[in-house]
Design a protein that fits this description.
The protein has five helices and no strands. By secondary structure, it is mainly alpha-helical. The protein has one domain. Helix 1 runs antiparallel to helix 2 (18-27), helix 3 packs antiparallel against helix 4 (78-100) and helix 3 (36-68) runs parallel beside helix 5 (110-134).
């Protein structure tokens, strides 16, 4: 199941039309019972996905700058950033699978979120400094 479909089902469960959510869940072969604990987990997961996308966008900005000015742009450890992006994507996929399974497996994604946000803020700060320097 894709994250977008999963998040839509979660949103529908919170709305007034829960019958639609149950029907869509049956069509997708997902039997999600949304407890308050799972709702919080879904929101945490959504925040992690957004943070990862923001990090990927920042890396793309660095890559664009390095095409125009390869000597002026500070070196970016793309291997480390790629590692964290891939690790986060796998974590998100695992979390969606855990949510859609019948069991109540739960694990915290806050460590991944904080690491991704830390890397992203560092890269954005370096990017801002570079743009000010180049004027």
């Amino acid at each position: 199941m894709e994250f977008g479909d999963f998040f839509l089902l979660a949103k529908l469960h919170q709305s007034a039309d829960q019958q639609l959510a149950k029907s869509l869940g049956t069509l997708k072969r997902v039997h999600v019972v949304l407890t308050p604990k799972r709702r919080r987990g879904i929101l945490d997961l959504n925040y992690l996905v957004q943070s990862t996308l923001k990090l990927a966008g920042t890396v793309c900005e660095w890559e664009k700058l390095s095409c125009y000015d390869p000597k002026g742009v500070p070196a970016l450890s793309t291997a480390v950033v790629a590692y964290w992006i891939i690790t986060t994507v796998v974590t998100c996929a695992t979390k969606v699978t855990a949510f859609t399974s019948a069991g109540d497996k739960a694990f915290d994604v806050s460590a991944y979120t904080s690491k991704v946000n830390c890397i992203c803020s560092t890269l954005e700060e370096q990017l801002k400094t570079y743009r000010i320097k180049k004027g």
